[in-house]
Amino acid sequence: MSTANHRPIVYFVIAGLLCASLTLNVFTYSRIRRLQAPAQSNAHSYYSVTPADIALAATVPQLPLTVQPATLKFVFGEHYNITKPEEWASLIPPHDGRVRLGEGAEFGVGMYQDMRCLDVIRAAFVRMRDTGSTERDERAEACFGHIRQAIACTADITLEPAKVKCSKDEETGKVVCPVISAVATGNRVDHRCRDWNQVRAFVEENQKSWV
């Protein structure tokens, strides 16, 4: 049989393989979409905000409070160990630090929302570290975005001294201090802030009027 007679068969085989490949790809894509859909749906329903919520928040964008400046010296390792939830809980007033304004509309205060989010991430980290759990924590994932934007919003421009990290060369015994290894820890550095105690006092006084 000539080569020309084989061509229709070859074309038919190639077409069949292409169709099989396309069918498999479509099936795989559909299955992936089905597996991903519940997680995406749950995340949307859990964190969704309605237009009414946005409109309400826009009417009272901040606490009716003039917060005075304050200074905070960053100190690490003395308090708020990640394994002490009671210390982290003490940072936030009752009711997650919420306030009621106007006709009783309830609001979360940004600072305490950030603190709560940090505590959520802390708890998730400790749980994963101690149990080896790989279970997805949607609230902790959302909190990363919340804190990221809160840090950017604050735009702290305090300068933190960068110290050079030196190491001893085991062969020569010389101390080597490469410039590119400079690290800014921020420890014991004063930062210009707003008086967080004043904010807490306002929140606690506001909550006294709750019925």
TrEMBL record:
Q: Which UniProt keywords apply?
A: Membrane, Oxidoreductase, Transmembrane, Transmembrane helix
- Which ranges does the record mark as transmembrane? 6-27
Query: What top-level branch of life does the organism fall under?
Result: Eukaryota
A molecular function annotated in GO for this UniProt entry is: oxidoreductase activity
Q: In which pathway does it act?
A: Mycotoxin biosynthesis
Extract the Pfam families matched here.
UstYa (PF11807)
Known InterPro entries for this protein? UstYa-like
UniProt entry tagged with the keyword Transmembrane helix = yes
GO BP term, pick one: mycotoxin biosynthetic process
Q: What family is this protein classified in?
A: Belongs to the ustYa family.
Q: What is this protein called?
A: Uncharacterized protein
Source organism (scientific name) = Mycena indigotica
